[in-house]
Design goal:
It is a single chain. The protein is an all-beta fold and 116 residues long. The protein is built from no helices and 11 strands. Strand 4 and strand 5 (45-52) form a beta hairpin.
């Protein structure tokens, strides 16, 4: 079992920035990849960004150039730096741990609200 705890969400004005953190209960070095996903009200969960064990990153087109995913293996933490936020980024953001074998693990989510 892996527990994931997200933090860093909140209310921010359009154009602002936030940094989300996801702390895992065990080493993220053993994960195939770590990722961030989000779910806006009334919509399904969508991919935001992933980072592999080797540091390769992948982003949704909607966040490219604005969001940056990073990882600190020593702290078992994955970050999502979000800049130039707009109202369409409002959602609950979830962290995912993809192990090499078995099912994915998900955090409980952290709310990000972009509003003036």
């Amino acid at each position: 079992q892996v527990q994931l705890v997200e933090s860093g969400g909140g209310l921010v004005q359009p154009g602002g920035s936030l940094r989300l953190s996801c702390v895992a209960s065990r080493s993220i070095f053993s994960a195939d990849y770590m990722g961030w996903y989000r779910r806006a009200a009334g919509k399904g969960r969508e991919f935001v960004a992933t980072i592999t064990n080797g540091g390769t990153t992948n982003y949704a087109d909607s966040v490219k150039g604005r969001f940056t995913i990073s990882r600190d293996n020593a702290q078992n933490t994955v970050y999502l730096q979000m800049s130039s936020l707009n109202v369409e980024d409002t959602a609950v953001y979830y962290c995912k741990y993809r192990p090499n074998f078995g099912n994915d693990y998900w955090g409980q989510g952290t709310q990000v609200t972009v509003s003036s």
